[in-house]
Description:
The chain is α+β, with helices and mostly antiparallel strands. The chain has 15 helices and 22 strands.
Amino acid sequence: MMAPRTFSNPTYQCVETVLVVEYGNVEYAPGSFDPPVNWYGPVSFQSASLWVFRSLPNPEYNNLTALTFAGQVVGGSSAVNGQFFDRPSRFDLDAWTQLGISSDWNWRGLFPYFKKSTKFTAPSPQVAQQYNYTWDLSSYGGTTPIHSSFPPFQWADNQVVLNGWKELGVRRRQDCAGGDKEGLCAVPTSGHPVTAHRSHAGLGHYADVVGTRSNFDLLVRHQAVRVVYPNGANSSPPILDVRSLTSNTRFNITANAEVVLSAGAFHTPTVLLRSGIGAANVLATAGIPQVIELPGVGANLQDHPGSTGVSWNCMSTGASPSCKPFLLTRLLLDTKPGNWAPMPEQMEDPAFKADATTAWNEVPARGPYTMALGNQAIYISLPNTTPNYPAIIRKILKQTADGSAASFLPPDYRENAALVKGYKDQLLAMAKLLLNPKVPNLETPWSTGYSTAAILLHPLSRGTVRLNLTDHLAQPIVDTRHGSNPVDFDMQLANVRWSRRLLDTPTMQRYGAVEIAPGGNVQSDAELLEYIKSAATLSYQHPCCTAALGPKNRGGVVDDKLRVHGAKGLRVVDISVLPLVISAHTSSTAYALGEKVRCSNA
């Protein structure tokens, strides 16, 4: 998606004339758990139009591939994501200054735009008391039509796991949106507070203004192919080369002020590479004349990998080996009449599902369909996950000291001095970050069920996004390269070992929890590592960082105003500009980025 914009003058009070070029179309964007979906069962997924990406096989993970989705619709990935609407840790953003990035991008510099970019609506006192929701209104305050709210529902067994985390010593935080989130968090979802429908950019920033703004135009079903500088990259702004998806014809669009790329972690570097902006060797391989040497384009790919931390069954004396009947019975007996008590298996019961659908259509909406995929998670730091964290940090520092860090980089750029220097700086920043007991490195979101995820929030491995050499207009080649830096497995082992402790808590023992994965016979590091490699989820849908903010001599692609280095009148505003993957799902950060640069001087 690209938007040429016109600014009045350097006063930062801007008047914009915007044309958005969009590959997809205007669509209804259902939520991640809207009727008629079953939580379990044959009908388990619905979505607006999207791209499906399969990475190249990851050798270190037994050749598993990463499966990633991206929105192919007005509103982008905000229209297809899981609606989990958390923010990063303040320390994530503060670490960027160690990479040569202006302090304007630290937590203090970006926090006002987190507040501005969304409108938070607090739950009713009854819902807040029932589900122990807490928040700090000083973390919010926006009035935009992008909504966040707490769902008025939780599955009954949610409390079981929550109690287990508390017994492990995880403290519940009053608020996790203000930059401090190590602990147990209730997280708002990107849902409307009354209807519980998905709130997304295509609805809030397009549908709410269509027909009311004469200075806004939307061109759907068109592919932004490349930008062209007829008179050199110092001329401003570039021409946009566009392809119609209906007629396959190509034409140019002329911008008066600038072109803004907002195509995401996979497609933004693809457009730049097709424009001749990238590493010389990468462009030469693709047969594209180089316009600007920027080796960071399509480099530095990061995402959150993970695996099942622990899964279990439940038994009690004289009970069935299956925990479902036993646990359901206990929970139903403890639930007051009139509350939504059954766990999501009940969605397969026609009467229950019909009642849930009726509740969803009420005003305000209620019942299980209001909750998206869940809104609670724990965030645990490396020092609070393993006593062996100093040894892990020493391994990272050793890579920077002995020069071995470069050997873990992708072969096609490990000889590039700027990228090697940038990666070394990243490792030094990460070592300091991971030492901090307030910085989350393990995330486990949950809502119901019999397993927990162990998501690695600060992986050290780096991948690439490259053009398809046989068809430059086709979807790019994604190589996540998870596990290429072996320290990632040290952190994964620590995360899974810590997660297994959940089943030793009094609450889980009271329900007779018995581990089924990794399994009681999996104890050594070697055995556990093989389990992690074979049962991994290699993308939790947070790809980023492929057109990174930072100095050019450290592999940066955009400057502190998100302007592409050396390319006049060209800016990138999407999640590809993050230098490091954050300890959060990425949608709220994408909105904050947009607000921060919306009226900045070109």
